[in-house]
Amino acid sequence: MVLGPLSPRQPFSDEAVKLATEAIRSGTLFGVGGPLITRFEAEFAAYYGAKHAVTVSSGTAAIHTALAALDPAPGREVITAPITDAGSVLPILYQGCVPVFADVDEHLGMSPAAVEACVSDRTAAIIAVHPFGGAADARALRDIADRHGIALIEDCSQAHATRFDGRFLGRYGRIGVYSLQQSKHMTAGEGGVCTTDDDRLADEMRLFRDKGWDRVSAGARGYPRLGLNYRATELVAAVALPQLGTLDDVIARRRRLAEVLDAAVDRAPDATRWTAPSECDTSYWCYPFFVPAGQTAAWGEALAAQGVPTSPGYIGDPIYTCLTALRPGQAFGGSGYPLTLAQEGRGVYPPGLCPNAEEALSRLMVFWLHEDHTDEEIAAVGEAIVSAGRALAG
């Protein structure tokens, strides 16, 4: 059986269209201090139980804004994940810091033991990436950060409304970061949000997203700190606001569909489930599963032949292999900055640096599950997984 095109995702409601139309007709889409951005930030913070939410133009901008609020000196180190998008790493480089990659555990989150081993006297922060709607061990990472006096930033771009040990991810760190990019649980096409309970960090993030402009106390033109233009427009809030009210239903639907695929993977020869930690209520940004090492391309072809699109290997290689800027002399006009500031043994990223991550990516398949797939489609996708496994097992 070959499936036809799968149902597209339809995240934008009539209410989103109404709010966007009203914003356009108002004649003003500028976001800072705008009524929709102000409302969105209040409701987003309330949903997660945070004191502050700061809206920016993308998830990458949100990570940069969070890190910039900490104001680390050039050459300081930031520990992060090897299985992630470039958006988790580029802000580290642009902030003049040195990325340090901590290997993953069986759930593909950063291993606390690996993170602990990466800490040095130059460590400024940990950016904990929560993958696929699952979680790194946020509680253990918070303990490590507190013990060493460093900041924990949680990258929840793929983990909206995911709870770990009953608590939302993003609430363990000093700052939580969320993406509103097209594929995320909540989307405005692009956009990002930072949450915090720290008044000072919230102020620093608001300054940084607005070119360092203090619009409250510095007069007409006062720029007390470095910043960039990471401002979001009123349209971001208009289309994202209604999704706060449906987010729980979206995730419940994804969980039900994932259960169907779990059952199929259990029946498929040589396929195994990806699992999140037992403390995690997974929100399923996508549906990952594992196949034998080196067979991801063959599985991708077998599934594509049945009309099921996948991403074999996810990003293919760890981000330290994919990202040219991490190679000697490749960034900032060939200077190699900021890696030239690294202490001995840091700032180099050879193959084998994170063996668990490299091995996992050689086995990882990703199906782009979403809430608007029909029950019939997901049942058929499950049967395609079983069929592919049987065919490839011979």
Question: What this model shows, in words?
Answer:
With 394 residues, the chain is α/β, with parallel strands linked by helices. It folds into two domains: 14-244, Type I PLP-dependent aspartate aminotransferase-like (Major domain) (Aspartate Aminotransferase, domain 2, 3-Layer(aba) Sandwich); 247-316 and 356-392, Aspartate Aminotransferase, domain 1 (Alpha-Beta Complex). It has 13 helices and 14 strands. It has helices spanning 14-26, 35-48, 59-70, 90-94, 112-118, 138-148, 199-209, 234-244, 247-267, 296-304, 319-322, 355-361, 375-392; strands at 52-56, 77-80, 98-101, 123-129, 151-155, 163-164, 167-168, 175-179, 192-196, 272-273, 280-281, 287-290, 310-312, 364-367. The strands form three sheets. Strands 1-9-8-5-4-2-3 form a seven-stranded mixed β-sheet, with helices on both faces. Strands 10-12-14-13 form a four-stranded antiparallel β-sheet, covered by helices on one side. β2, α4 (90-94) and β3 form a beta-alpha-beta unit. α1 packs antiparallel against α8 (234-244) and α9 (247-267) packs parallel to α13 (375-392). The longest helix has 21 residues, at 247-267. Pfam families: DegT_DnrJ_EryC1. One of its GO terms (biological process) is polysaccharide biosynthetic process. The active site is at 184 (proton acceptor). Its cofactor is pyridoxal 5'-phosphate. This is dTDP-4-amino-4,6-dideoxygalactose transaminase.
